[in-house]
């Protein structure tokens, strides 16, 4: 392992841009924790002096580097974090939709296990389209839910009106868009994982710890 060309202090997220710039310039740069080089009694505390001190410690090899994932892993993590965020957004929209239905006295989730089923989606779509007859709505049930017709009729008897319809449409459209985006991210994540795994499988003994660059 070669000695690093430079060190970057891990201060919040501000280190990232400098680390990535130095890395992209071909330098062997290391990330170090501030507590590993600042806790020196009697030494003045200024940014300039800290930089000089950091350079001296780097030159003498006295710093312990923090782990920074290779670029392809960082790319993969960006995709997985985005998918987590969008999945949480989708869950919140389903919760908002359930609350909206409850405001309209539609208690379909007291009979169906959740809103994310084909049966309940058909019922909500029918409500949005202006169909209000609870017996007709209960008739849209599929599978085992069809055996709960009487309970569904009671749960679908409410006061769903036009403003509920408009808001429910907005929420469902957002959910559908998030479904598409999450599926897109999932496919991309699978591709990235396959690329990384293929590289590691093809070069298990190459002695080169580097992964292929971001794609």
Number of strands: 3
Helix proportion range: 55-70%
Total of helices = 8
- Give the overall pLDDT as a whole number: 83
Residue runs with pLDDT of under 50 for 5 or more positions = 204-208
Radius of gyration: 28 Å
Oligomer: single chain
By secondary-structure content and strand pairing, the structural class works out as mainly alpha
H/E element sequence? EHEHHEHHHHH
Q: Strands across the major sheet, in which order? A: 1-2-3
How would you sum up the major sheet? 3 strands, mixed
User: Judging from the principal axes of the Cα atoms, what is the shape?
Assistant: elongated
Q: Strand fraction band?
A: under 5%
End-to-end gap: 26 Å
Structure write-up:
The chain has 215 residues and is mainly alpha-helical. It is built from eight helices and three strands. It has helices at residues 15-24, 35-38, 47-59, 71-103, 118-128, 134-138, 149-155, 162-202; strands at 6-9, 29-32, 65-66. Strands 1-2-3 form a three-stranded mixed β-sheet, with helices on both faces. Helix 5 (118-128) runs antiparallel to helix 8 (162-202). The longest helix has 41 residues, at 162-202. The protein is elongated.
